[in-house]
């Protein structure tokens, strides 16, 4: 007789099917290592690991589990078909519900005979965590059941395989693809972080794809997950060495920040084709983990500044210097604010209303800024929308806003050039008064170079970099400058440069929104959005 747990599945509860998984409901022992679906062999494993995977069928037969030569087990309400993956203690099958819906699911079968105390803890943790989670980028546990031989976790089916296979078949991922995936992973981790849950075994094999056509990431395998507050420290070694934070190996003491290191390794592998500690042997791997050397990023492929910054901050060996969760979620490359969601259209509409109001008041600069911010939300809104008719309606509106933004851009661009020229006399006087201050003079020269770049077509990013470099020096010099005419001029110039830098930063961010606009690229709108919100 099969007993049913209380996932979202239907059916009468029998004895042992409590609302929360109780230890008394299962025999001693449990599920250990992670099993993914569909799962390919791990990449970049040290030599000697293949033999262990060959032992899995023998262990499965001994434990009473189904395998390739002896057919899947039988489970009430489902027809189990092909095997998707297997591990030390469990096998995952594709299955169909016998109901009229013929829903496709993945069923994780755990052999009771193979269970030990640690495995029971992992299994109960996985059930407890997944039962209470509903998130678009976390695999859903629909139900769980058990019989005399196995425990069954009935999971959402992900037809696209895992991220490891996806990366391997493409060698490396373009930055814009990696960014979309990272947004989705960050969204799932933010959801978990808000509930003080750490995954502790993040790796590409534990990240599934909903499909191969327009895939969405689904975080899976919570066997090692823990409810951890930010100050909690653990001393138990968990996870996979290639993706494991150094403090887990070197200090055997760690907290939730180990997940951020693992995210960095996953992103590194997606962009460069292999994890930073890829090794030929476990000895070599251990040496790399225990080393104090800074993780160096390859020069190729070329990546954006924000992407490299995030990678370096994630792959910081010292957890106290590693990027925090809040800074990770707020990082401009991750940009969760503009991730496609049901709120994207509402936020875009709100900004458009404000833009129209400013436009009617004659404030061209404010109106252009608001139109650009609105378009920054319309791009993900179009990605999120699945109804073709609604999508066409949104596109029509976007076309109108792009046209108006083009008109405003010409007005604002002309005004900006005039303002730059007006400040020339004060700027020249400040430069004359800085002749005895080489450091101040050099910083002002950098600011002049930034202005020249800003006037040049397509030089926004270079201009922004120069503005930021100049301001870094000028702010320090302003703090040390004694009262007087030179200080007054310097203060005014710093204010002007900061305003220009903030404006350019907004324009550059708007231009980079095309990374989230693959669909718009195909439909010819992305270039219009980018052009309209980038001043020449």
UniProtKB/TrEMBL annotation:
Record key words, sorted: ATP-binding, Autophagy, Cytoplasm, Kinase, Nucleotide-binding, Repeat, Serine/threonine-protein kinase, Transferase
GO cellular component, one term: cytosol
Domain of life: Eukaryota
Region annotation Disordered: where it falls in the sequence: 1-68
Matches recorded under PANTHER family: SERINE/THREONINE-PROTEIN KINASE UNC-51-RELATED, SERINE_THREONINE-PROTEIN KINASE ULK3
Enzyme category, top tier: transferase
Domain Protein kinase intervals: 78-334
Residues involved in ATP binding: 113
Protein name in the entry: Serine/threonine-protein kinase ULK3
Subunit structure, interactors included: Interacts (via protein kinase domain) with SUFU.
One Pfam match: MIT
Function of the molecule: Serine/threonine protein kinase that acts as a regulator of Sonic hedgehog (SHH) signaling and autophagy. Acts as a negative regulator of SHH signaling in the absence of SHH ligand: interacts with SUFU, thereby inactivating the protein kinase activity and preventing phosphorylation of GLI proteins (GLI1, GLI2 and/or GLI3). Positively regulates SHH signaling in the presence of SHH: dissociates from SUFU, autophosphorylates and mediates phosphorylation of GLI2, activating it and promoting its nuclear translocation.
Gene Ontology BP annotations: autophagosome assembly; autophagy of mitochondrion; piecemeal microautophagy of the nucleus; regulation of autophagy; response to starvation; reticulophagy
Subcellular location field: Cytoplasm
Gene3D superfamilies registered for this protein in UniProt: Phosphorylase Kinase, domain 1 (3.30.200.20), Phosphotransferase system, lactose/cellobiose-type IIA subunit (1.20.58.80), Transferase(Phosphotransferase) domain 1 (1.10.510.10)
Catalytic activity annotation: L-seryl-[protein] + ATP = O-phospho-L-seryl-[protein] + ADP + H(+); L-threonyl-[protein] + ATP = O-phospho-L-threonyl-[protein] + ADP + H(+)
Single Gene Ontology MF annotation: protein serine/threonine kinase activity
EC numbers: 2.7.11.1
InterPro entries, sorted: Atg1-like (IPR045269), Kinase-like_dom_sf (IPR011009), MIT_dom (IPR007330), MIT_dom_sf (IPR036181), Prot_kinase_dom (IPR000719), Protein_kinase_ATP_BS (IPR017441), Ser/Thr_kinase_AS (IPR008271)
């Amino acid at each position: 007789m099969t007993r049913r747990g209380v996932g979202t599945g239907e059916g009468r509860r029998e004895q042992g099917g409590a609302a929360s998984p109780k230890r008394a409901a299962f025999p001693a022992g449990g599920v250990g290592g992670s099993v993914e679906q569909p799962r390919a062999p791990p990449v970049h494993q040290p030599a000697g690991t293949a033999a262990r995977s060959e032992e899995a069928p023998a262990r499965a037969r001994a434990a009473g589990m189904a395998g390739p030569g002896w057919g899947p087990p039988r489970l009430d309400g489902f027809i189990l078909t092909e095997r998707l993956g297997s591990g030390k203690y469990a096998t995952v099958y594709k299955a169909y519900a016998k109901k009229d819906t013929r829903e496709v699911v993945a069923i994780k079968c755990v052999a009771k005979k193979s269970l030990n105390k640690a495995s029971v803890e992992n299994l109960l943790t996985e059930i407890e965590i997944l039962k209470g989670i509903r998130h678009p980028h976390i695999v859903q546990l629909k139900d769980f059941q058990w019989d005399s031989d196995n425990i069954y976790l009935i999971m959402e089916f992900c037809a696209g395989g895992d991220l490891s296979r996806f990366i391997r078949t493409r060698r490396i991922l373009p930055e814009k693809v990696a960014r979309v995936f990272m947004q989705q992973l960050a969204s799932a981790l933010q959801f978990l972080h808000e509930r003080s849950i750490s995954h502790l075994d993040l790796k590409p094999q534990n990240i599934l794809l909903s499909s191969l056509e327009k895939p969405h990431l689904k975080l899976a395998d919570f066997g090692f997950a823990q409810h951890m507050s930010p100050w909690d420290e653990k001393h138990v070694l968990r996870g996979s060495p290639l993706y494991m934070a150094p403090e887990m190996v070197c200090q055997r003491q760690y907290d939730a920040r180990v997940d951020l290191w693992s995210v960095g390794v996953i992103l590194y592998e997606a962009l460069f084709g292999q994890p930073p500690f890829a090794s030929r042997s476990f000895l070599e791997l251990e040496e790399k983990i225990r080393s104090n050397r800074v993780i160096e990023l390859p020069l190729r492929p070329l990546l954006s500044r924000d992407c490299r910054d995030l990678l370096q901050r994630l792959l910081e060996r010292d957890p106290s210097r590693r990027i925090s969760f809040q800074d990770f979620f707020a990082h401009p490359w991750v940009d969760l604010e503009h991730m496609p969601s049901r709120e994207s259209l509402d936020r875009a509409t709100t900004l458009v209303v404000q833009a129209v109001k400013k436009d009617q008041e004659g404030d061209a600069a404010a109106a252009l800024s608001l139109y650009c911010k609105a378009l920054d939300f319309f791009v993900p809104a179009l990605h999120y929308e699945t109804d073709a008719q609604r999508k066409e309606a949104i596109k029509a509106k976007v076309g109108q806003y792009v046209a108006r933004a083009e008109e405003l851009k010409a007005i604002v661009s002309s005004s900006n050039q005039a303002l730059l020229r007006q400040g020339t006399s004060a700027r020249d006087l400040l430069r004359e008064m800085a002749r005895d201050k080489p450091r101040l003079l050099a910083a002002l020269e950098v600011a002049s170079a930034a202005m020249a770049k800003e006037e040049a077509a397509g030089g926004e990013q270079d201009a922004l970099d120069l503005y930021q470099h100049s301001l870094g020096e000028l702010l320090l010099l302003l703090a040390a400058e004694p009262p007087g005419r030179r200080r007054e001029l310097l203060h005014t110039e710093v204010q002007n440069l900061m305003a220009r830098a903030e404006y350019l930063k907004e324009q550059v961010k708007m231009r980079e929104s095309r990374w989230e606009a693959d669909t718009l690229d195909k439909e010819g709108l992305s270039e219009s959005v980018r052009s309209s919100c980038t001043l020449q």
